[in-house]
Amino acid sequence: MTDAQDTAADSSLRTTGGTPPDDAGSSVTGAPVPLLEPREGIPPVVVDEAALAGVIAAFAAGSGPVAVDAERASGYRYGQRAYLVQLRREGAGTALIDPVACPDLSGLGEALAGVEWVLHAATQDLPCLREIGMTPGSLFDTELAGRLAGFPRVGLGAMVEGVLGFVLEKGHSAVDWSTRPLPEPWLRYAALDVELLVDLRDALEKELDRQGKLEWARQEFDAIAAAPPAEPRKDPWRRTSGMHKVRRRRQLAVVRELWQTRDRIAQKRDVSPGKVLSDAAIVEAALALPANVHALAGLNGYGHRMGRRQLEQWQAAVDRAKALPDAALPQPGQPVTGPPPPRAWADKDPAAAARLSAARAAVSALAEQLTMPQENLIAPDTVRRLCWEPPQVVDAETVGAALVGYGARPWQVEQVTPVLVAALSA
User: Fold this and answer.
1) How wide is the angle at C-alpha 317 spanned by C-alphas 312 and 318, nearest 5°?
2) Partners of 33 in the beta sheet?
3) 381-387-388 Cα angle (round to 5)
4) For burial by CB atoms within 10 Å, which of 5, 179, 219, 415 has the most?
5) What is the predicted pLDDT for the residue at 21?
6) Beta-bridge partners for 45
7) CA-to-CA distance for 257 and 179, rounded, in angstroms?
8) Mapping DSSP to helix (H, G, I), strand (E, B) and coil, where does residue 420 land?
9) Of the candidates 104, 101, 99, 67, the residue with the CA atom closest to the CA atom of residue 83
């Protein structure tokens, strides 16, 4: 075979989902190649217990890590439940599972106990996977690995292209995955998302090892796997977009009442809250405090497309907030559980402000030296808390102990303690 024929054959292999070449772990310098088809084709979607049992058996018998991904319907449905789960493992191939038809995947989770899961941006998918009975004992997060290795772009498409030399089609990432039946192009996209995830994992492991960061990454992955489910957010209505415009307590009460009413309706209808009433409309009503339905209908977000019954339910929420006694009105701002905002430090505690400035500069310089984002080297909140209330005696032991208390991993403590001791002692 001539060189030209060899190149053409390799290109054909790649574009039809063939196995990547052995040197795929190196950074690719040639033109990236579109990956158009999964190498075994698009598998049928698992929608019954018999098919699920077959998948469980196949994946239990497979070898090596398992690639896992989940598709949600953010912006379309209420909550963050999974509407498709994709897996791939050596010896088992790719599986696409419908968790609406098969809502209990604990049997699959048990079959994969002791197997390393490979996910991209694991913290995004783990909550919805946990809801259906799938929780990894150990994992490898390819997005986080990319951050620690210093890659400037860590989206899955960018990583697969830059590291493996393939282009993933990303046109269906924001579609409504609750659609049934799922169109074939969407299923192809979903299957391709796990097609090369283990290959990417292997390449990133080599790169992290080359940089001396593999143990750091393992500590981060273990922390993600061991983290408990997140606590429900306190006063989630306070995160309404545009809240900075709302100043008065009575107006805050209107935001709260409208937000809670919208949330109940959205949950009952299983639609995204933004499709029931926009944040902008909530803030508009809070600022205007409309006296009646007619006044409400004249505000942005409550136009002619909204029926009388809908207008009445929103006006009723406004009226409930307006009728509250002063003692029941929400306080402006949220209770502060940590240091005040850094912008206030210069007035409240100039010495703390100086410590924070020195610490931030030191962490930034170290992060640049280690070629990773500052927030992955050490959490900014940890630095703020340490600078606001430093140990009485500042040395490596006390600073290291404080960092451990704030949840820093051993590798982080080892790296940042010297520069923080210097900054706090200046």
Assistant:
1) 95
2) 166
3) 90
4) 415
5) 35
6) 96
7) 31
8) helix
9) 99
DSSP 233: P
Q: What is the mean pLDDT of the chain?
A: 92
Which 8-state DSSP code applies to residue 164? I
Torsion of CA 410, 416, 417, 420, to 10 degrees: -150
pLDDT digits (tens, 9 = 90+) for 27-67: 556 788 999 999 999 999 999 999 999 999 999 999 999 99
**Quick one: 135 exposed, middle or buried, by C-beta within 10 A (0-12, 13-18, 19+)?**
middle
**How many whole angstroms separate alpha carbon 377 and alpha carbon 386?**
15
For residues 366, 372, 376, 380, the Cα torsion angle rounded to the nearest 10 degrees is 50
Look up residue 189 and give its amino acid: Y
| Token reading at 57 | 């058996």
Report DSSP state, residue 86. Answer: E
Give the contacts of 195 (CB within 8 A, at least 6 positions apart): 17, 35, 38, 39, 88, 94
Q: How far apart are CA 20 and CA 30, in angstroms?
A: 14
Residue 17: per-residue pLDDT: 40
Question: In angstroms, what CA-CA distances link 72 with 18, 80, 110, 174?
Answer: 28, 6, 23, 9
- Residue-wise DSSP of 363-376: HHHHHHHTTS-HHH
What b-and-e string marks burial along 359-376, b requiring 16 or more CB atoms within 10 Å of the CB?
Answer: bbebbeebbeebebebeb
For the record, the structure tokens of 217 come out as 């990454």
User: Hunting for tokens 């029926």 — which residue is that?
Assistant: 307
Residue pair 145/204 in contact by the 8 Å Cβ criterion: yes
What is the C-alpha to C-alpha distance for residues 324 and 332, in angstroms, rounded to an integer?
A: 16
CB of 223 closer than 8 Å to CB of 121: no
- Look up the pTM and report it: 0.89
Domains of the chain: 3-226 (3.30.420.10), 236-328 (1.10.150.80), 342-425 (1.10.150.80)
- In a 3-state reduction of DSSP, which class is residue 65? strand
CA pair distance 259, 397, nearest whole angstrom = 47
Q: What is the pLDDT of residue 28?
A: 59
